[in-house]
Amino acid sequence: MSFMPATPPLPYAPPRPPWYAWREEGVLQGQVALMQRNFPVTLLASLAAAAGATWSMYTLLDRTVLLLWLASHIAVVGATFACIRWLLPKSVTARVNAWIMVACMAAMGLSWGTLALVSVAYGQPEALIFATVIMGGVSSGALGLGAVLLPAYLAYLVSPVAMVLAAFAYLGGPIFTPMVFMCLVYFSLTCVQARAAEEVTYRSIVLQQENSDLIERLRKESQQSKLALVRAEAAYQSTRQAQALAEKANADKSRFLAAASHDLRQPLHAMGLFLEALSRSEMTQQQVSVLEHAHAASTAASEMLTTLLDFSRLEAGVVTSKPRPFLLQSLLAKLEQEFGMQANAKDLIYRSRETDHAVLADPNLTDLVLRNFISNAIRYTDRGGLLVGCRKRDGQIVVEVWDTGMGIAPNQQSEVFKEFHQLGNPERDRRKGLGLGLAIVERISAAMQAQVTLRSAPGRGSVFRLWLPQYQGYMSHEAELASHTYSLLGMRVLVIDDEEPVRLGMQELLNSWGCVAYTADDLSSALHCVSLLPMNQQPEVVLADYRLREGATGGQAITALRAYLTFRGMEKTLPAIIITGDTAPERLREARHTEATLLHKPVSAPALKQALLQLR
Fold first, then answer.
1. At a CB cut-off of 8 Å and minimum separation 6, what does 74 contact?
2. Helices within 149-172 (DSSP H only)
3. CB-facing half-sphere around the CA of 51: CA atoms within 13 A
4. Quick check: helix, strand or coil at residue 537?
5. In Å, how far from its chain's centre is CA 487?
6. HSE (CB half, 13 Å, CA atoms) of 283?
7. Burial of 143 per CB tally in 10 Å (0-12, 13-18, 19+)
8. Of 449, 462, 485, 262, which Cα lies nearest the Cα of 366?
């Protein structure tokens, strides 16, 4: 066997000398480490195989000689284990370790080879056949261990093969001579397999070392870029702080809007009730004129607060789309009746094209989107007019609002959908709105999973489009036009509100509709009121403000009243309406889960009447 200098490591196609040479130091150390890790298990397997060989050949060999062979094999195994355990770790080079492995494997092979000589000298002819089979199995089993280091496995294999060949040649004959040929074939095939296995091991070790080198190189590069990472982290923290400040400012804005909306809604709600009650009394022409102006002022303030409410509800996430099929014509006709008068007041032409298209969408959210489109068209158009219509495109129904107004520059068309962004209103005239209409449209379209598009040119007008899924099923026009025709005459209503002007205004309005109104300022007075009434005069509906005294809520009052009336024997659940002016997101989410109809201040008389009719 010759030894040559180590060759440089290559991952997949390493050059090989004429026969064999030790690998480079790092790869050789990896081969020895693999053998050292697997050796104890292999030695135990060798002892088990030796015990089995002794058992199977006990009647074919001289027993004393067979037991002496077993004892010598155990001694060789013990010496090999001691060498691997204590001698190998003291070595300083991989090449010396490799030589120690070669010596250990050669000793193991020599021990097994002597079994063939013992079988010929002290046993029956059949004993050699048994010994050959056993050594073949043991050699094949050792392939997984020794092939990691090819010279070690060859040193192990040569001794038993040579001794078996010598034994067969000594016996000769028609049976044993062919066995010599079979042993040579076995030896050749085993060497080929060992070489291939060693090549696979070598490549895996080289690849592992390359990965380790790569990891080390990356570690050094990461250390060099530590300063850059620190700077990036500082920039990230600065960005997070800026984001936190922006989120806090946004939350403060939402709380301010909610608080302002609530505080302003209370007096507006009471004023609306008194104005509605006053309109039913006899007045002079001058008083009627003053009342109309008061109604107009109240309506304008109500619209602004309604816009704030819509924006707060969208930010709170309590607006959910409830799609159902409906005819667009009834909605377009209602909008024309409402906005046509506003267009006439500005000398604008309002046109609405009739349609028989039906869509599958939330009618209330669709109404809110179109209201914002139309009110903007009227607000920003000084001459000409607007057209509302719809058409079918790409399997969808597109509702369009055209105007001949000032138009929108291309660089402003995405900005108009942001909150508080207005065009042509540098003086911030609140008669032109708050700049929230299209921001509300943007959020509503997202809730509906619908698309809103804009096309406009400065000085030539604009067209806003809402894309809705078409409904092609059967639609009943009568169902669209159905409405409640019940009367409120004689309905018993309990009003719970902690503000006296609201209670008085609500009582006046309910009495004008023919209702029997009871009033209470908190839960205890409401319970006292119903306790004095006989069962046939108990309230049929509870109308409660959301915020009551001492932190109580209308929902809590309704729950307590229902429990009390159920205890007294009322069979059905007491219907209820909650009126709230609070637009804070968390308050809206609370009220949404209350088992009562929810109305927002200031409540118009028709809306309140419709809610009462639905509960009757």
1. 47, 50
2. 150-171
3. 7
4. helix
5. 51
6. 14
7. middle
8. 449
